[in-house]
Design goal:
With about 350 residues, the protein is of the alpha+beta class. It contains ten helices and seven strands. The chain has two domains: about 150 residues, no CATH class; about 170 residues, Histidine kinase-like ATPase, C-terminal domain (Heat Shock Protein 90, 2-Layer Sandwich). Helices cover about 60% and strands about 10% of the residues. The protein starts with 10 loop residues before the first helix and ends with a strand.
Length: about 350
């Protein structure tokens, strides 16, 4: 990100801006030195301002003053010291105190030159004007960089989302999954027509949901499709697979990334034993922390299956890019659980 930014909030940018401001603020003195000194009488009391020494010292002092102020502003901005009211007040106090101190030091340096007029103990009004320019330009740079960062993250999110959709489709419309589904359906048609019809409806719901094109959906929609997938798996595994749903309706309008719960349920079935001796129970629950959790007992298979669809790392990255939030993965006491954040 910083490599692509021409004006990042670093010392190089501070150096360039400080040099430009110091030269611009002293352009009059440089012009008078090069073009006005020959027209001033030798005994004129203001002849000292036409000297090269005056011009260079002013440029140097303005540069140092401006450079240090930029460094301070950049430091506070990159640490997000202007995001909260308390931080804003503290940062403003630090900047004002530092500005006054620099102005005072500049005034002391200037008085050491014989022909310099004394600017006063609090410094020259020009220095305070420069400090205002530094503060405003720093804010503008910060806002511009933030917008660029947001635009870049949106592009990354879009790219990641398209990749995720492709991988999700590949994972869901997997020949193995489709083969098993058709085999199960074929058996049901011969033995239980009503259950076969239910199976077709649930399978249709799962595929229709997989083909949707939304970045975020409601928890209610996600649960509806996840339950359809659970129903398919229960028809296949029978009483060996159980699902417990514990989500209050007040959370139904919260937002979630599509396929989050379904992926976690699928992973639980994929990586754990489901049999008469070891039935698998998967629980989906919501909490007051505005999160939804999928948990299951750890019943590892002897021969672990290799995952080739969207996994936990991919799911975590989607939440990180979309909402800048993390999912929580825990494994303790024989229970594996994944906690996903919800948003309004």
């Amino acid at each position: 990100m910083n490599k692509n930014n021409k004006l990042s909030l670093n010392w190089k940018t501070a150096f360039i801006l400080s040099l430009g401001i110091s030269l611009l603020m002293n352009m009059l003195f440089l012009t008078m030195f090069f073009h006005g000194r020959d027209h001033v009488p030798p005994d004129a009391h203001f002849r000292h301002i036409f000297s090269l020494e005056v011009a260079l010292v002013r440029i140097f002092l303005n540069f140092v003053f401006t450079f240090l102020l930029y460094l301070l502003n950049f430091r506070l901005l990159t640490q997000n010291r202007f995001s909260r009211i308390k931080d804003k007040i503290l940062s403003a106090t630090v900047i004002i105190a530092f500005t006054v101190l620099l102005c005072y030091l500049c005034s002391l340096v200037k008085t050491r030159f014989e022909d310099f007029p004394h600017p006063g103990m609090l410094g020259s009004p020009v220095d305070y004007f420069i400090s205002a320019v530094v503060f405003l330009s720093s804010q503008l740079l910060y806002m511009s960089n933030k917008q660029q960062k947001t635009a870049l993250e949106n592009e990354m999110l879009q790219s990641e989302y398209m990749k995720t959709r492709f991988m999700a489709l590949k994972n869901q419309v997997d020949p193995h999954f489709l083969f098993n589904s058709l085999n199960t359906l074929s058996s049901l048609i011969k033995t239980d027509a009503d259950k076969a019809e239910d199976y077709v409806q649930q399978l249709s719901c799962v595929f229709r949901y997989t083909l949707q094109n939304k970045e975020v959906i409601t928890l209610e929609e996600e649960i509806k499709c996840t339950l359809a997938y659970c129903r398919l798996m229960q028809i296949r595994y029978g009483d060996n697979l159980r699902f417990v749903l514990s989500v209050d309706e007040k959370y139904h309008r919260r937002r979630i990334v599509p396929l989050s719960l379904q992926v976690l349920v699928e992973n639980a079935i994929k990586h754990n034993v489901v049999s008469n001796r070891q039935p698998l129970s998967i629980t989906i629950s919501a909490s007051e922390k505005e999160t939804v959790t999928v948990s299951n007992p750890i019943q590892p298979k002897k021969k672990e299956e290799r995952g080739e669809g969207i996994g936990l790392s991919n799911l975590a990255e989607r939440y990180r890019l979309l909402w800048n939030r993390e999912i929580a993965i825990r494994s303790a006491g024989g229970i594996f659980e994944v906690e996903i954040p919800l948003t309004v």
